[in-house]
Amino acid sequence: MLKPLGKRVLVQRTEVEEKTASGIILVDSAKEKPNTAVVKSIGGDVTELKEGDTIVFEQFRGTEFSLDGEDYLVLDIENIIGVM
């Protein structure tokens, strides 16, 4: 697992609902990426969060990458709005 440096957090996005409230199934191109995620690892300067927290973050932020077939996102702590 990657250990972020400084005030960064490694997260994994939560799954998106594949149907609308009225039952219409969405194709991948119509889905928005969720802006909620589960914290997987934290940098040494992060005191507000712990592993396993579910967070809400600003859209279109962070650096996406894959590791061992899993997709992750590294966020700066300033891009995290809150903890659920």
Description:
There is one protein chain. The chain has 84 residues and is an all-beta fold. It has a single domain, classed as Roll (10 Kd Chaperonin, Protein Cpn10, Chain O), CATH 2.30.33.40. Helices cover 0% and strands 39% of the residues. It contains no helices and six strands. It has a six-stranded antiparallel sheet, with no helix packed on it. The radius of gyration is 14 Å and the shape is globular. The model has no long low-confidence stretch (mean pLDDT 87).
SSE map:
Blueprint: E1 8-13, E2 36-42, E3 54-57, E4 63-67, E5 70-76, E6 80-83
Antiparallel strand pairs: 1-2, 1-5, 2-3, 3-6, 4-5
Which key phrases capture this entry?
single chain; 84 residues; mainly beta; 10 Kd Chaperonin, Protein Cpn10, Chain O; 6-stranded antiparallel beta sheet
- Derived from helix and strand composition plus strand pairing, the structural class reads mainly beta
CATH topology: 10 Kd Chaperonin, Protein Cpn10, Chain O
Number of DSSP strands? 6
Distance between the termini: 23 Å
Q: How many distinct helices?
A: 0
Task: Give Rg in angstroms.
Answer: 14 Å
Q: CATH superfamily, please? A: GroES chaperonin
Please identify the top-level CATH class.
Mainly Beta
CATH architecture: Roll
TL;DR of this structure?
By secondary structure, the protein is mostly beta strands. It has one domain (8-16, 27-83): Roll (10 Kd Chaperonin, Protein Cpn10, Chain O), CATH 2.30.33.40.
